Target: GDP-L-fucose synthase
Amino acid sequence: MSSKSVIMVTGGSGLVGKAVQWVIENTDDKCGKREGEEWIFLTSKDGNLTDPAATKAIFEKYRPTHIIHLAAKVGGLFGNMAANLDYFRDNLLINDNILHNAKEFGVQKVVSCLSTCVFPDKTTYPIDETMIHLGPPHDSNYGYSHSKRMVDVMNRGYHDQYGCNFTSVIPTNVFGPHDNFHLVNSHVIPGLIHKSYLAHSTKSPFIIAGTGKPLRQFIYSRDLAKLFIWTLREYKEITPLILSVPEEQEVSIKQVVDSIVKAMEYDIDYRFDTNKADGQYKKTASNKKLMDLNPDFKFTPFDVALDETVKWFKENYETIRK
Ligand code: NDP
Model:
């Protein structure tokens, strides 16, 4: 990166955006803020990125040299199923506006955020970066998944036609402070943290949908943030990079529940409602490409990351998204 950089983070108020801000403000020079860097964290209050004029005005105001592009319409399973078209259009518009202006304003590098749901529903494991376009994504959120896949297509096109350095990363399931802890419309970890908290405070049973057997790779938002910053500074390719813990660190939903109960620091009984569906048994992704390029990176142990998240949840319960 050159000595004077303006780094604009879209989606700066979200789970991942807040983690990038935390890392920039609280860690050493390797991941933290460097001399000559100005970091700008955008929220939707700065402008609606589905709107071309509002997006252009943001670029005119800040003149970014680098962008971490996180802003997206993100939702749970039911939200996606009910409005696949809205997820497709909003995200397509946001991504097109960001990348088009990035090219027009001569932005030196953009790192956009995809998601593992871009991968084909029917696939072999472990999933790797070469498999994105090899078959249709899962039906439940095809709108969101296709809009994310198109970022990879646009990155390739901007590079081929204009020589732009626009790339993308693919995180697995993210969790951490500032997550959305809504009981229905949230991801698995924040949803379970909130449910266990309510079960304890209302002295009602803590019931978890499914068998607890499915396996997932979870990445702590602050680890992901460090990897985003590393990608912005060091990753040279246009093609995407999976940002994930190793395959051996996949955990079962039962392990997640046990860790939450431990982090909550109270005795609580729970049971699985095995009449409810489990979802996909696993979605194992390979982090080989990442570890080949960044072999020294150390992931926060799952229990430590969960502990920090639960502590943050309890301290901020009144004001969190829920
Ligand atoms: P959040 O829902 O926590 O945050 C979304 C962010 O996008 C907020 O800052 C929001 O602003 C902003 N935003 C949404 N719509 C608009 C809009 N129309 N105009 C301007 N800003 C907008 O998301 P996450 O932090 O969880 O996700 C960040 C990225 O990571 C996304 O691209 C997501 O697809 C991806 N991802 C997330 C995973 C996860 O497990 N959470 C897993 C894999 C990928 P405001 O707060 O003002 O509304």
